[in-house]
Design goal:
oxidoreductase, Elongation Factor Tu (Ef-tu), domain 3, 8 helices, binds adenosine-2'-5'-diphosphate, FNR_nucleotide-bd, 29% strand, Rossmann fold, OxRdtase_FAD/NAD-bd, 5-stranded parallel beta sheet, alpha/beta
Length: 279
Amino acid sequence: TDAVTDTPVKATPALPDAQTVTEVTHWTDKLFSFRCTRPASLRFRSGEFVMIGLMNDPDPKTGKVKPLLRAYSIASPSWDEEMEFYSIKVENGPLTSRLQHIKVGDEIILRPKPVGTLVHDALIPGKRIWFFATGTGFAPFASLLREPQTYEDYEEVIITHTCRTAGELTYGRELIESLKDDELLNEVIGEGFWKKIKYYPTTTREESPKMGRITDLINSGEAYKDLDVTPLCPDNDRAMICGNMAFNLELKAMLEEAGLEEGANSKPAQYVVEKAFLD
Ligand code: A2P
């Protein structure tokens, strides 16, 4: 037969919604980040999350393979050509025990349906914005710190990150240091935008320049003193919270006590909260 009239052999993607891994960085034995290609049609707002994962091993009875997906905050900003994710490695975690072994060129599944409340749209205008993170809860802020709107909307940006060990702070610290050289932010916001940022890293189980839970450091007033800022107030301050459950609840109660109200996409207000992914 004539080759031209033959049914063309279509390149079938090995996975539904497959994206290719372009970079993997291991930060500690428990933390890694990776970058992958971005679906051409995917639009998202900085701070949102998507479902990502891998194909499961075939079911021993049926032989069928199903995707194994988890919610992951997108750590890259909305303008980035690629996608970035920041993940914990859990030894017996169904997904992360396998995801931690991905290499450049491997494929992952990325469902292109972004959602989430840690978005600028869910907050009403204010002077300062606080980003409160623990552990991998830093991920959505890695996106929002690279988002020009953050610096357009606020005079001051305060990012706090509490981790158990100093090594767990590295991803966040390097990202914040890299902002100084961020071409887009320098071009759009103007050089010196990064001087609006106040970074407050703390550790709880290993020696570091600032020890303690951010909640305790705020309650005692020590954080305000260290940062040289006035206490949280509903007129000036907006906040986003992302960390483990106990932290989210404690900080939420503190913000409510200070007079801030929780916002949502449908009803913007003064703060928003989201649980960091746990395998
Ligand atoms: P701590 O070591 O005192 O528990 P995890 O790794 O368990 O998710 O915790 C990440 C960080 O969040 C740790 O430094 C931990 O401190 C801190 N943390 C846990 N619970 C709270 C809370 N309720 N308020 C403030 N920080 C918390």
